[in-house]
Amino acid sequence: MTSTTASAPDVGTSIDDAPLGIFHFKAAATAGAGFFTDSYDLNVIGTVTLLAGPQLHLGAGQTSMLTSSTLLAVAVGAVSFGRLGDLLGRRRIYGLEAVLMIIGALVSAFAPNFTVLLVGRLILGLGIGGDYPASGVLMTEYANTRNRGRLVGLTFVFYVFGQVTAYLVSLLVLAAGVPDHIAWRLILGIGVLPSLLVLYQRRHMPESPRWTAAHGDEDRARQDFEAFTRAGNTTFAAAPGAHGRGFRIRAALGNRRVLLTLIGTAGSWFFFNVAVYGNSVSQPLLLKSIVPHGSTVSNIAINAVLVVLFSLGGAVIGLFVLDRLPRRVLQNVGFGLCALAMLSITVIPALSGTVLPFAMVFGVSLFGIAVNPN
């Protein structure tokens, strides 16, 4: 039986003040595996449409539907699973999003026609969308105050790793001489592997102690905290305002400060995603429009070099400076570089006329994205 004293910290304070330990990196790896899978599944579609186009007779409209419908499903999945996580608990939805990603990847890989491929991508998008809040919340709720920025930033580096892996896997499959009509199915099917890892990891995670405490069960919060951190004999005070009711959207939106923060962060992310995702998932198609007669292998190779140099480079630099620079400064740098690069491509026709100038300027936009305005 746990005795609670007036001097004991609540669960949130205990997690906030915990020294950096192995369990923090375990949480980062578990959350990061989700972002890695999300990124891989999103970023292979550009290559897949190039390879599957002749076999499935994809027109420009169908190609656009395959990319845009997935992103629409991501939005639906994020809202749905995010709310379910608040109502039912984090652990009850951990893994469900991975199951959807597995099903979506398999349906896509074995699709006999455009319609089935579209359905598979929609299912996959729901799973990816569900994983966004699951992975983000998982890390933020286990992170301590001192290292929160770097730990959350580390999970987003996994997204870049997924992007790099998407191009490297595509390049290896094509370089191995696999016929195009099999290659695109293999590339999609490989997405099942990281989803299985996510499913295994998530089912072995305890419930979030913060969520449990917010719903008035301090004893269970203590057990979950000790199970994950390997801490012993932990004593928690009741969480402030915890009466078993948890989070209420209406009450939060009635708080002016919370509402303005939500509008600022969600609004920034909305415009950021509008500018970014349409380009990132279509990189091979963008490059093909500049070099229409170039080989698919050279197309993917150039994109692989771009994401390694600019995306991965930006992510590493962003992670290094995340706790050294104000968040707003880093956001302004990232947004500014991205906007400048895209504006330059728009207003300077010569940049989109040949590969090297386009690749360099587009690479600057990738750097701005990855340096962590998220």
UniProtKB/TrEMBL annotation:
GO molecular function: carboxylic acid transmembrane transporter activity
Main location: membrane
Domain Major facilitator superfamily (MFS) profile: 27-374
Record's subcellular location: Membrane
PROSITE patterns documented for this protein: MFS, SUGAR_TRANSPORT_2
Membrane topology classification: Multi-pass membrane protein
Keyword list, A-Z: Membrane, Transmembrane, Transmembrane helix
Protein name: Major facilitator superfamily (MFS) profile domain-containing protein
InterPro entries named among the record's database cross-references: MFS_dom, MFS_sugar_transport-like, MFS_trans_sf, Sugar_transporter_CS
Listed transmembrane segments: 60-81, 93-112, 118-139, 151-176, 182-200, 258-280, 300-322, 329-348, 354-371
GO cellular-component term (any): plasma membrane
